[in-house]
Design goal:
With 291 residues, the chain is α/β, with parallel strands linked by helices. It is 38% helix and 13% strand. An 8-stranded mixed β-sheet has the order 1-2-3-4-5-6-7-8, with helices on both faces.
Length: 291
């Protein structure tokens, strides 16, 4: 199928793009923007923002949609929290988004490393007091691992369900849909802001999407993102449909009707795309603190 016009993006013209790219490379960091071939990378790098990918660039899982390679992982880099925090400070980020590869080889799934990065960013960027959003794996259902991340107090905890449960065996075989919903429920019970997202175009039906939105609302999730699956390479599953922008608007309506407070649904929406603006909307809606 030909890529429709609403999915075409322009190449960067801003010198800020090269500056962001150079900074990330110079600090020996990975970003999901480049690692996952995000279609919004040019726009985000040009705005001097990026989503940091920690714990290496090799994943212990093999999700069919993902461009990040599975394989043999390397030991954690103890200096990575400092370098991430330096990048966040030099970019002047007020909202820092941190994600990771899945590290099932680690006893805690990398939760302590997440917490170390969060603490380092808060310390290095204390002058702007950044909000922090993490996009975490499922930690194989470990309550202790999730608690380690929650104790570091990120403002938003994101965990994507990615696709309706009927498609997990083909698209996300090493994950568990109910376990992901349980993680979101635990985040909400702990007083955090849970966020999740899914892709469309992998063979799901609109009614299955509607069912996922209802499940997310039922788990206590407050924020949902929905975007178009884009095939990273010929080795990945083909796109089975390009969803029209009008249908994405319908998804957003369904999500709000189900009880989700914020639904961001459009072809180029990704988990961390415009994440700072999303948090600003949530913060603005919060009642003022009681003196």
């Amino acid at each position: 199928m030909r890529i429709p016009p609403w999915l075409r993006t322009k190449l960067p013209t801003s010198p800020a793009f090269a500056g962001t790219d150079s900074l990330v490379e110079g600090l020996r960091l990975h970003t999901v923007c480049r690692g996952a071939k995000c279609p919004n990378m040019f726009e985000c790098y040009s705005k001097r923002t990026a989503t940091f990918l920690i714990m290496g660039h090799v994943c212990t899982r093999n999700c069919a949609f993902c461009n990040i390679s599975p394989g043999v992982t390397e030991p954690l880099d103890g200096d990575e929290p400092r370098r991430v925090s330096e990048a966040a400070h030099r970019l002047g980020l007020k909202h820092v988004v941190i994600t990771s590869v899945t590290r099932d080889d680690l006893l805690d799934g990398g939760a302590a490393h997440f917490a170390a990065v969060i603490r380092a960013v808060r310390e290095a960027c204390a002058d702007v007091g950044p909000s922090i959003e993490v996009l975490i794996p499922d930690f194989r259902g470990s309550r202790a691992a999730l608690r380690t991340v929650l104790d570091a107090a990120p403002e938003i905890v994101n965990h994507n369900v990615e696709t309706p449960p009927a498609h997990y065996g083909r698209i996300r075989p090493q994950a568990d849909y109910r376990q992901s919903l349980e993680l979101l429920r635990r985040v909400r019970e702990a007083g955090g802001i849970p966020k999740s997202g899914l892709m469309v175009g992998l063979g799901e039906t609109d009614e299955e999407v509607r069912g996922v939105l209802a499940d997310l609302a039922g788990s206590g999730c407050r924020i949902a993102t929905i975007g178009q699956y884009m095939r990273p390479s010929r080795k990945h599953p083909a796109v089975e449909r390009y969803v029209h922008p009008d249908v994405f608007e319908e998804y957003a309506r369904w999500g709000r009707e189900a009880g989700l407070e914020y639904v961001f649904s459009a072809p180029l929406v990704r988990s961390s795309y415009n994440a700072a603006h999303v948090f600003e909307r949530i913060a603005a809606a919060q009642p003022p603190a009681t003196p």
